[in-house]
Write a structure and sequence with these properties.
- The chain is mostly helical.
- Helix content is 61%, strand content 0%.
- It is built from seven helices and no strands.
- It has helices at 16-27, 29-40, 59-85, 89-97, 103-106, 112-132, 140-144.
- It starts with 15 loop residues before the first helix and ends with a helix.
- The relative contact order is 0.17.
Length: 147
């Protein structure tokens, strides 16, 4: 696994440790999507007439709750990318959710500096959506400029 440098997001009120938490959350994106797909395709157990294990609780409700949580996590990542970069959403998602998806490999239709600014904005919006909005106000006009 390549060693990645930590982003400095101090001007957004995000510490190094918080950034690492956000990055780890994003790296689980594909896993969350696969698990959600698996939960949505689970069929009931075959009826064989034989006694089965008796689990306490309601497994259907547990699956539904897990599906809602995974769906919300996926939506947070996708919505943050949309807010931060607009039509470059797919590039931002690929960059933050996959190890090794560098700017050079993605070839987005914008400059490097602009792309990395969109990435910083993405992490700020994700931080906000996770309930960590602080006193830091950033210039929203800069993130609204579209390519």
């Amino acid at each position: 696994m390549p060693r990645r440098r930590d982003l400095k997001l101090d001007k957004y009120g995000i510490s190094k440790e918080a950034y690492r938490e956000l990055r780890s959350f994003c790296l689980q994106y594909e896993e969350k999507k696969a698990r959600l797909q698996q939960l949505r395709s689970i069929a009931s157990a075959p009826i064989t007439g034989m006694p089965g294990k008796n689990e306490p609780g309601n497994p259907t409700a547990k699956h539904a709750e897990m599906a809602v949580k995974l769906s919300n996590d996926i939506a947070m990542i996708e919505q943050s990318a949309l807010e931060a970069s607009g039509n470059l959403q797919q590039y931002i998602i690929q960059h933050v959710t996959r190890e090794g998806a560098t700017y050079e490999r993605l070839c987005p239709p914008c400059g490097r500096r602009q792309f990395y600014e969109y990435r910083r904005m993405f992490f700020y919006f994700l931080w906000e959506k996770m309930g960590n909005a602080g006193d830091v106000q950033i210039g929203r006009a800069s993130c609204r400029e579209r390519v």
